[in-house]
Amino acid sequence: MVQELLIAAVGAVSVGVVYATAAARVVKQYERGVVLRLGRLRRDVREPGFTMIVPVVDRLRKVNMQIVTMPVPAQDGITRDNVTVRVDAVIYFKVVDAASAVVQVEDYRFAVSQMAQTSLRSIIGKSDLDDLLSNREKLNQGLELMIDSPAVGWGVQIDRVEIKDVSLPETMKRSMARQAEADRERRARVINADAELQASKKLAEAAKEMSGQPAALQLRLLQTVVAVAAEKNSTLVLPFPVELLRFLERATPPQQEPAPERLAEKPTPPVWPQQPPDAAAPVPTPSDAEQLTPH
Fold first, then answer.
1. Which one, of 121, 23, 27, 21, lies nearest residue 74 by Cα?
2. Residues 165-216: tens digit of each pLDDT
């Protein structure tokens, strides 16, 4: 009798151990457990830790609640301005409702991947090339909205969508390079013209100030000469402006010019004293005439 009881106890313990082994489940911290009892969904979702199910009757589906990083394969498309491009992206999503992810969709990962590819092709057709290259934030938001709308019913939340790369044909790359080069040259010319305009205004103001003080112009000329002569590797040709001559002429005091030599005067005949009309004029002798003749 005791032996039979002992065998029954051992058998019961063995059955209990087998039952516990078959019913025991461990749900990890980043997972949630969805129980299907005879094919029907149990409302209680098993939290992380140790849990028990009914063997053979219950089936436990573990759902990963971590954020999933899924690359979207590159999609070929034609933009709204008729440019052929190849765009690839990456999508970040996570499961927020484990029961819906198990019941509402067969494979939520595959469903999200296909929806992302379809939405990416749709975004390419609705956008211009400039938007794809420079306005990616707006396109990312639109792509996220397009994927998130159907994914809500699957218990999936789209966390972020990013366009990684936009591949262009080689001809388009060369055309864009020429366009960028022409735009940079245009901006350089505009900046140069603006600088010339500002410099001309400043030079006009400087000339106006120097016109009141002629000495300032000469000092500026001398400063230029000093700056050029500091290199000592060129021949300096110094112009001599007329203004400098005028300045020196005004600055130099006038000098007395030497009196020119007096021209030799022609000899004038001697003037004899008049005699009274009644007196007889004396007749000059030869000796007197020789004395009066100038040598």
1. 121
2. 888 888 888 888 898 889 999 999 999 999 999 988 888 888 787 777 767 7
